[in-house]
Each structure stands twice: as structure tokens, then as C-alpha cells.
Amino acid sequence: MSDAAPVTAQVRVRRPIGAKLVGIISTLLLLSLGAITLLVSVMVSADVRITAEDNNFTLNLRSSAEAETALKAVRDEALLLLDTLELLEPYPERARAASALFFAHNPGVAAIAGADSLVNEAFFRDSGQIDRFIDAERAALEQSRAGETLLRNGTPFFGLPLLALFFPREDGPRVALFSPEALAGTFGAGTNLSFLVNDRGDLLIHPDNSLTAAGTNMAADPFVRMMRESGEANLQTRYTGEDGREYLGAFRKLSLANAAVVTTAEYAVIFEGTSATTRRNLFLSGAVLCSSVLFIWFFSKTISAPLKNLAAAAERIKNGEFEQKLTARGKDEIGLLTERFTEMGRGLAERERLRDSFGRFTNKTVAERAMRGELALGGEAKHVTVFFSDIRSFTAISEKLEPAEVVEFLNDYMTRMVDCVEKTGGVVDKFIGDAIMAVWGAPVSAGSPARDALNCVKTALMMRSVLYQFNRGRGGDKMPVIRIGCGINTGDVVAGQIGSSRRMEYTVIGDAVNLASRTEALNKPLGTDILVTENTFALIGKYLVAKEMPPVTVKGKKKPVRMFAVISLRGAEGAARKPATLAELRRILGIPVPEMDKVDVNAKERKYKIQGG
């Protein structure tokens, strides 16, 4: 969008636009794709859950119905055989034929035992092992004698897949041993797992034959325990298995043999398809996100590059290079911004030229505040410290110099003195020939009247030191030694823009200004170079090494004003080799010691007189 001059300093950006755009677009995409994925997952998961629950419950009902039918068939066929044999008891041959015919039609039945045993020779050659099994399950046999029908696992005992159905009969309980293979298909393994348990929790039928062969007991399984403790005939619920996984479980208690069919399905398996779909959606979302990030990143360069050029130009403007050559290459907002930025640079350059020119004729601080409209119209009350300085015998000095030499000398002198004022935050109010008037506390303050007063005194001491260096090597008519007097007073003034509608200046007026001017004039008769009034001394006297001079009666003042000659600053505030006494100061600066009783201070105007001393 824009071209700029080479960047002189690296413009550092903590949060680039490209990163922000990538973050925003990525967030929006993540939220939208995430919401869609979540919505689809929730809806599909809800459908899958309902379907899984229906299938699990239906499978459990079917398996329990088939198991119940098979058990009833075994019991009824056995009872029918026993009744038939009882009728054929007078006909032994027919009874044996009926028994053989029964086992031929029911090959899964291994034996029917009780008072006597009928054995299917395809399973057993004799009934001895059967008798031992019945002795081992004597408790079940007794329960059957009491009228209960029970089911026990005979596989661990016989080494063959056999179940034992204990059922009552008028002449005593009977046991039907039969193979569960006919039901194996009903209890197949898959997403849904069905198995048959008895009243003790023994595993009777399970897709994993090794578990039934080992005589596994499921009483500790959370769902089997729930089934045994529940008074419900059938139930389906969600539970946590011994392995910590979530399962969907359903059971139905059989009306026969005090057994139950349990059907379970692991939730992870149920929702495996949904999870796979969700993963595919996430992968697709990630691909879309990566593509979008790359696109947005490269697109952001068309915005960030011209903005970086503008930022670099702003950095150069900050360093004072206001004229910038920027070329708008587009008709969008950035192109418009580039044009306005260039115009702004030209405006700032013009303003800087104006400020620089304006600042040469008045104080730069005042000029800047005036340009910003921060100076109050009219006057405002301020508590300030006013400073006056004047070159001693300037008229006599200027008479020995050419006009150009006078101007050159004054410019050199004023430059050094004004630099001292500005270093401490003072404001040069005006130049009155060779005199300087400065103010601390207006239009800006260092924070308190005491700090303003101390800064003013520091300036006067700085002027003393600068002038001492300035005078080295000077002497004669063309390079005279310069001595000055400084008067300082603190008090209330009116500060504001004063003048006519055509020409105005920022200044301070008031009795405090007049007293500062008159204080400056006292330096010559008192043989001092820096005098402060009692008003200033009351604020910062503890920082000064000073000598009190004779009090002065000032015109318009009822009481004499105490005056103090500043020798130096105390402690760390003072510089090395500082004078300790007024006599030492006069010797260093070459100030003659006055005879106080012969002093006539401004006899013409009679603005003040010295009171004794």
C-alpha cells in the first residue's frame, strides 16, 4: 500500500496484526467447527445410545426367552419320560425302548438322575460319576426336594459342557444333565455380550467356554451383584465395571431355575463409530483451520507491511523527521491513511518551524503551552519565585565596544545564562537590556513553592560558576571581566497573557516582582552577587549557607525586609571548593567590601534605605 524511506530503527510490535487475524479467524473457525462437531456428535450419540439401549434390551429379552424355553423343554421332556417309564414299569423292554427313543430324540440330554439314573451312553458309560456329582450338589438336591428348581454348572466336574437342572417331583427330586450347546448361538459375543448365571452367581453359559469350564463365579461383578440384590424382574441401566469402564447392562430373571440372563455392552464399543466420525470431523476441521491460517497469514501481510511502513515513518517523526515521502498504492482505508499521514507530517513540520521561530522570541515552554491552548486566558494567581539579574556597569562596558561587538557579547552571555535557567525548569520572562527576568512556578511548577525557590537559587549559583569560567582569560576594554547581581523573591503574583490585541506576552506582575527587582539592585551597595528575601529564605533557608544582611526598608512596605546573601548550598547540594564565608566569596569573585555607613542606595528614587549595620 505504501513505500517509505529505509527504517533506521527496528519497529517492534508485540502483537502483530497477522497474529491477531490468525487468532480471531482461528477462534471463529474453532468455535463454529467445534459447535457443529459437538452438535453432530451429541445428536448422533443420542441416536446411537437409544438404538444401543433398544438392541441391548431386545437381545436380553430374546436370550432369556430362549433360555427359559430350553430349560422348560428339558424339564418337561424329563418329566414326560419319567411319567412314561412309570406307566411302562410292568413292561421292562418297552421302558428301555422308550428311554432309548427319548435320548435319540434329545441328543443334548446326558442323563436324568434321582432315585435311579437314566444315562445317555453318548455321554456316560455308567452312572457312578453322576452319583458323585449329585452328592457334591446335595444342597441343591435338598432345595429341589423343598419344591425349588435350580440350575448348576456341571462342566468343571464332568470336564464336559453340561448343565444340571434340579427340579422337584412327587416321588423325589430329579436332576437333568444336558448340554448348553443348543443355546450357545443365543449367547454369542459381539457388541452385546449375554451370559447366564444362577442364584449363586455361577457362570452357566458364556461365549467364552473357558470361563464356564473354570467354574467362574460372577457374584463380585457390579451388575450381577445389582441384579441379585434387585427386586426387579428385569432392568437396564448404565454402570461401571470392575475394570473401570462404562457399560450398558440389562438383566431378566427367569421364571424357572432361579437364574437370570445378563446382557452387557461397553460404551466405548457402542460409540466407536460415533467416535470415529468425530475424529474424522476433527481432522477435517484441523485441515480447514491450517488452510485458513496460511491464507489469513499471507493476506495479513498486505495489511501489516504498509502499516509497518507507517509505524516506521511515525518513529522517524517522533525523532524529529517530519517530512515523510509515503506513496499510497491502494484506494482502501490504508491508502487513505497513508495520504493523511503524509499531510500530517507536512503539518507537523510547519508547526515545528513555527514553534522553533516562536520559541526564539519567547520561552519555549510558554510557546508550547500556548500552541496547545494550555495557558489560561487572562490572569491567574500563582505563588512563584521571581529572579532578576543584571550586569554591573554595563553602560560603561558597552561604550568601549562597537555595536556589533555589544550584540555578540550579549548573545554569548545570554546564551550561557538562559541555559542555566532552563536546566532547572525556570522560564525566562523577558530580557531588559542586559538584565534577565525569570520565574519558577509559572506556568509550570516543580511541585511545591519550596522546590521552585530552591531551583531558582541553584540557577543563580550555576550562573555564578558559569560566569567565573567565562571570565577566565578576560580583561581589558574589549574583553572586560563581567560581574552580575541576582535578586530573588518568593510571593504571590498574577500570571497570564498581557498586552494588546495585536501583541501579547506571558508574564507575571505584582509586588513580589517589584521586590525581586529592588533586591537585585541591592547587591552593588551590599557587596554581594546573590540576595534572597526573607520570603524565599523562610522556604529554603535550611539548604543554604547564607549571611543575613542589614534589613532594608522598601518603599510601600511598613516593616523592613530582611535580606540574605547566598554563599553556597549545604552538604551534598553544594559543589567541591565552595566558599564558606561571605568574605571568601568576595575574594574569589573580586567584589570590593563596602563601607555600610557610607552607602547611598539610589538616593534619587529613595526606594530603600539600609537600617544600620
Keywords:
Alpha-Beta Plaits; 9-stranded mixed sheet; alpha+beta; 613 residues; 2 domains; 18 helices; disordered N terminus
Overall geometry comes to rod-shaped
Unreliable stretches (pLDDT < 50, length at least 5) are: 1-9, 601-607
Residue share in helices? Answer: 40-55%
Helix-strand category: alpha+beta
Total helices: the number is 18
Main sheet overview: 9 strands, mixed
Task: Tell me the number of structural domains.
Answer: 2
Number of strands: 19
Strand composition percent: 15-25%
Radius of gyration: 58 Å
Note the gap between the termini. 81 Å
Mean pLDDT: 82
Describe the protein in words.
It is a single chain. The protein has 613 residues and is of the alpha+beta class. The protein folds into two domains: 21-272, no CATH class; 377-610, Alpha-Beta Plaits (2-Layer Sandwich), CATH 3.30.70.1230. The chain contains 18 helices and 19 strands. Strands 11, 12, 13, 14, 15, 16, 17, 18 and 19 form a nine-stranded mixed β-sheet that branches. A hairpin with a 5-residue loop joins strand 6 and strand 7 (203-205). The longest helix is centred in the first third of the chain and has 71 residues, at 17-87. The protein starts with 16 loop residues before the first helix and ends with a strand. Mean pLDDT is 82; it is low at 1-9 and 601-607.
